[in-house]
Amino acid sequence: MTQRLDPEQLRIIAPAGHYFALRIGFAYPVEEVNELPQGWIDHYTLNRFMLFDPVIRWAYSTIGCMRWSELEQDDPRNVLGQAKSFGLRYGVVVSVFDGNKEGQRSYGSFARNDREFEELEVKLLQAFMSRRHAEMAPPQNLTMAELEALGMVRDGKRLKEIAHILGVTEGAVKQRLKNAKLKLGAKTGSQAAAMASQYGLI
Question: Would you say the C-alpha torsion 136, 69, 42, 7 has a positive or negative sign?
């Protein structure tokens, strides 16, 4: 196994499922992957466990990694105990924060049903989360003109209207949006605007 884990390797290390959220800002992550069992997702949601989950509390208050078994004493609602009945008997949580000014952190929760995670597996998961967190960092090379155009797209303005407000040609607006899409890895102008908004750039 290499440090650049792919989805199949993740399933081997965490066969009972995994969840991770990347670059969580004020409310929502830039990207979220939930590969936990559907029965557990439904039970967790119905019982509003996120408010009481010791794994989530730890992930939002600490940086590093921790096995679920080390969090069980801080679980008055028995969230981890109930997870076991859905095949999530052993787990590890990883939380990453790089001191970015936006205050965005990433975390992942990984589960097995047969044994505790080995030290190497924990290190691989920590490296995976650190890499994914870094990959989702907002680009620093967008120009003010590009951000201005993206802000207007987010606000629902049409190309002709943006050009009129900025006092430039429609071609100039198209070029700004094209450059922004390329830098953000977006397919459309509205997707680029949504991404820039998620990153807190506009």
Answer: positive
Q: pLDDT per residue over 70-116, tens digit each?
A: 998 889 999 999 999 999 999 999 999 998 887 889 999 999 999 99
Crossing angle of helices 144-154 and 159-166, in 10° steps, is 130
Q: 158-173 burial string, b = 16+ CB within 10 Å, else e?
A: ebeebbeeeeeeeeeb
Number of H helices, E strands in the chain: 9, 5
pLDDT at 34 over 50: yes
Query: Which uninterrupted H or E stretch holds 169?
Result: none
pTM for the full predicted model: 0.76
Calculate the CA 154 to chain-centre distance.
21
Cα 56 to Cα 17: distance, rounded to the nearest angstrom: 16
What sign for the dihedral angle of Cα 112, 113, 116, 119?
negative
